[in-house]
Amino acid sequence: MSPLSVVLIPFAGAVLIGLAAKLPRLRDALSWITAIAFFGGIISQIGPVLEGAGRSQTVWTLLPGLEFAFSVEPLGLVFALVAGTLWLVATLYAQSYMKTLRYGNLGRFFALYAISLGAAGGMAFSANLLTLFVFYEILTIATYPLVAHDGSAQARRGGRIYLGYLLVSSIALLLVGIIWTWAAAGTLDFMPGGVLIGRLDPSWLPLLAGLFMFGIGKAALMPIHRWLPAAMVAPAPVSALLHAVAVVKAGVFTVIKVSVYIFGIDFLARTGASLWLAWVAAFTILAASLIALTLDDLKARLAYSTVSQLGYVVLGAMIATPLAILGAVIQLAVHAVAKITLFFAAGAIQVAHERTKVSQLGGLGRVMPVTFAAFAIASMSIIGVPVFAGMWAKWYLIAGSLQGGHWAFVIVLLASSLLNIMYLLSIPAKAFFGAPARGVDDSKVREAPWPMVAAMVVTAGGCVALFFFPEPLYMLAQLVAEGGKA
Amino acid sequence: MTIVELMPFSVLVPLIAAPVCAMLPGRNLPWALATLAALASAVIAATVLPHVMHETLHYAFGSWEAPIGIEYRVDAANGLVALIISAAAALALLWARTSVNHELRPGSQSVFYGLTLLCLAGLMGIVMTGDAFNVFVFLEISSLSSYALIAHGRDRRALVASFRYLIMGTVGATFYLIGLGFLYIMTGTLNMVDLAQQLPAVADTRVVQMALVFIVVGTGLKAAMLPLHLWLPNAYTYAPNFASVFIAATGTKVALYVMIRMIFTVFGYQYSFSAIPLGAVLIALAVAGMFVASWIAMFQVNQKRMLAWSSIAQVAYMILGLGLGTVAGLTATFIHLFNHALMKAALFMALGTIFYRIGSVRIEAFRGLGRQMPWTLTAFALAGLSIIGVPTTAGFISKWYLILAAMETGDWLLVALIVITSLMAVVYIWRVVEAAWFHERPQGAKTVSEAPLTLLVPLWLMVGLNFWFGLDTRLPVAASGAAAKSLFGVFAGVAP
Predict the structure, then answer these.
(1) CB-nearest partner of B423 from A60, A159, A168
(2) Which end of chain B has the least Cβ crowding within 10 Å, N or C?
(3) Phi/psi at B410 (nearest 5 deg)?
(4) Helices (H) and strands (E) in chain B, counts
(5) C-alpha to C-alpha distances, B156 to A282, B112, B161, B234, B351, nearest whole angstrom
(6) Percent of chain A whose predicted confidence (pLDDT) is above 90
């Protein structure tokens, strides 16, 4: 399949889902068909990419010399695979969750859910920055109604912060960075080795890199991170698929993409232009972890954990050694699998228990063992404990730091692991071994409906599977790291 | 008929149709004639445009060759503006019927449509003519008819607004005329090309410098350049909704075109930018306009007034591109001229459509309206995205070229200012979106149904054009580039 048709599948699906809004069964069936077709389309891109001949196509000319074009390369494929695969699982989860909690406007909800995934796919397969930017903005705008879905004052406020941060950062900084790149390089195409060498005075490089890194608000580099906790007013499936996977990973995907194919990692590493941003990322990693420690609201804590974990990817991209890039790509994938599990669990707890605070979870592990087991597995994956996939990310990120001679970042990564244990693993520990709060009777609490539990089990299984079979992911990530050298 | 002979008809058709229209009985006939005349004018302008991309066509009226007679001189710059004006008028008229029926007494409609055509003829005349005095004549035609259009507003404040506009508009036109008088004293000619040839000999006189100042101020006033903008908000707010759509999409742009034409073709840009600190002044006023007007727009309760302030800000972007004094800057000005007509027409149409149903354009009346009039409000939101400059909309293309032009001059502060002010648009558009979709309909508010198709179809056509020209940018980009180059005399062999 051509990249364009893969990208169009969710958009077409969204139209159909919207039309079938009043017919729940048909609507749900269409959601499934769309997700499955999209997944199939992405799978069909794997073969050509591994043969070194990813499909590319030019759709039309937007401005003279600037095409609306797609090109499939390893990094985009990793992102698309992550998003496409997890969309399948999330569909299972979301349909059950939204119905159990009796949300309204489900036609709009699932249509926008599909559009968001289509936008993520469009970003993944973009052949140049302009195409990517177009889908980046579609993703922002399509997810805003999902965040403000229930229409309460709090949801509106969250939605406003969400839209404000993402739209403002992208227009004020990212767009300026893109136009500057265009003015300097005369092209916005993603090229192995970058397009800026010899075309931009290296003394401007730190500033341009800053415009990109802060402009890509979806990567949630501090201080452009406030939108992510604000987005937690959304229903759990949105937080899970979008704010743990599609949206935030679209952000860090763009970070890697720009570092490798616009700046060129050699150029970055040689000039040290991005090192100041690596420090910002390091600060983000630690500061967000410390904030997470203080939060009692489960989803807010997970959100800050995401901010911290996204910092890993930015850190890897900004260190810009091949091994660090490798680590960043792997982190993009494995964190997605782990974090979606955590959000699934948070949603399941909410459905079964109607509670959202960490302090209320004592003893709940005994009545919801599967949920909290999945939570524990995903937490350990994020911490980087062996037999869980997260370890590989941390492994290569540390190796990448050493490759660049940056000892300090190794310490940051290790300190972060320690903080992860404190704010993540403490939750299932409390659930399994803690005592219920006084006056609370949990004997009637059951696990969430089976589709939600199944979704969690699958993604938790993914955390283990990717530890034992990291080969395909590693291969693609390796291609990205090599492609960067050129 | 050759293209050259066809050219003047884009002015003549509406001019001749205007009195006929005013005399036609009933409501539908005048509307049909007005729409057809505007469409014809637009078709002629569209036919002419490809022929003037690389050369200048001129037509001598009554075969009196310039500088004795009056000639129409069309190059890419006015070819493009003529198309923008006439096409916007035609699309606005397509939308007009239901709205005008709703707001105007049946008896006054034929005159109203006649005035619209007269105004269009005046605007087209200003654009097409190669004679600087002829510009003044057409300026008066279009201005007088637009005062009358605005005074048709149902709100009694429309009369005051119209009167204020009349005073200010006359001051502006007089300034232009004084400047022109100075030029005539010094050269004895009123033909633009002839002026351009004779002015260098007397360029170093205070009189010519003053003429330039008077003309820039006079046209600046008509273009609502800060601080000469005060006539605009009330005029746009209290005019009948159709008049708001029509004038917002056309009026200020033509004045800006005259300013550009005089600066570049008559005085020559090298003279204009060196005799007086034109670039610095225009940039300063533009930046002030972008900020002040966007800022005020954010706090408006009456949404027509909000769009009026937004228009002032958007014109300021065009003035900014002009003030940069580069080909890239002027290209951006023309692109935005084109795109802004699309977005403002769509937004005013959306407001007019809402007004048709709920009889108000105040933001609190919009609460919860998104569910009752989904198509109208969605159209507003989409056109709003274009004003913000979200990619795939026409507004994005404007912003792209404007930022690129500012970057080219190396002025980073300007880049930052453009970006910051365009973000203010997010605020004033999003207030409406939030009111419409994320507030409940207030208790006791009447339930309304979706607007009729006669309003919705033209509205969505306009919204569609905003996206069409955000994706297929060949026409505005190529024509604007050609316009800027011809004004800079690039293909006349003069280096920019």
Answers:
(1) A168
(2) N
(3) 75, 15
(4) 21, 2
(5) 63, 17, 9, 12, 20
(6) 22
Q: How far apart are CA B111 and CA B100, in angstroms?
A: 12
Q: What percent of chain B has pLDDT over 70?
A: 99
Q: Could you tell me if A328 and A398 are in contact, meaning their C-beta atoms sit under 8 angstroms apart?
A: no
The answer to whether residue B65 scores a pLDDT higher than 50 is yes
**Counting Cβ atoms within 10 Å, is residue B333 exposed (0-12), middle (13-18) or buried (19+)?**
buried
By the 8 A CB rule, do B321 and B402 touch?
yes
Q: Are A113 and A146 in contact (CB under 8 A)?
A: yes
pLDDT value at B397 more than 70: yes
Write out chain B residues lying below 8 Å of A170, CB-based: none
- Cβ neighbours around B16 below 10 Å, total: 14
Structure confidence by residue, pLDDT tens digits, A305-319: 999 999 999 999 998
Per the CB < 8 A criterion, the answer to whether B38 and B124 are in contact is no
Residue pair A307/A357 in contact (Cβ under 8 Å)? The answer is no
Q: Is A157 helix (H, G, I), strand (E, B) or coil?
A: helix
Going by the DSSP 8-state scheme, the letter that residue A223 receives in this structure is T
Q: Is A419 on the interface with B (CB under 8 A)?
A: no
- How near does any CA of chain B get to the CA of A26, in Å? 23
Cβ contact, residue pair B426, A168, below 8 Å: yes
CA atoms within 13 A on the CB side of A412: 25
> Which secondary structure element, helix H or strand E, spans residue A71, and what is its range?
strand A66-71
Cα distance between residue A465 and residue A481, in whole Å? 23
Asked if ipTM goes beyond 0.95, one says no
> What is the distance in angstroms between the Cα of A234 and the nearest Cα belonging to chain B?
14
How far apart are the C-alpha atoms of A327 and A397, rounded to whole Å? 5
Which tokens hold the place of B165?
């506009």
- pLDDT at residue B480 above 80? yes
Half-sphere exposure in the Cβ direction for A138 (13 Å, CA):
23
- At B432-444, the pLDDT tens digits run 988 888 787 888 7
Residue B490 has pLDDT above 70, yes or no: no
CB contact under 8 A, B407 and A133: no
β-strands A66-71, A56-63 pairing: antiparallel
Average pLDDT over residues A287-299: 89
CA–CA distance, B157 with B152 (Å, rounded to integer): 10
Confirm or reject contact between A171 and chain B (CB < 8 A): yes
Q: Which residues of B touch A159 (CB under 8 A)?
A: 438
Omega before B67 cis (within 30°)?
yes
Is there a contact between A28 and A95 (Cβ–Cβ < 8 Å)?
yes
User: 């063992």: which residue's tokens?
Assistant: A369
Identify the residue with better confidence: B446 or A190. Answer: A190
B294 touches chain A (CB under 8 A): no
What is the tens place of the pLDDT at every residue in B159-199?
999 999 999 999 999 999 999 999 999 998 999 988 988 88
Q: Which long-range contacts (CB under 8 A, 24 or more apart) does B292-295 make?
A: B292/B226, B293/B226, B293/B229, B294/B421, B294/B424, B294/B425, B294/B428, B295/B424
Q: Tell me, what amino acid is at B404?
A: L
CA B427 to chain A, closest CA, distance in angstroms equals 9
Q: How is residue A278 written in tokens?
A: 């690596």
**Distance (Å, whole) CA A39 – CA B163:** 64
Q: pTM of the predicted model, to two decimals? A: 0.86
Question: b/e string for B106-137 if b means 16 or more Cβ within 10 A?
Answer: eeebbbbbbbbbbbbbbbbbbbbbbbbbbbbe
CA dihedral A178, A181, A183, A186 (to 10 degrees): -110
Q: How far is CA B423 from CA A345, B96, B268, in A?
A: 38, 31, 35
Quote the CA–CA distance of B314 and B312 in Å, as a whole number. Answer: 5
The pLDDT assigned to B496 comes to: 35
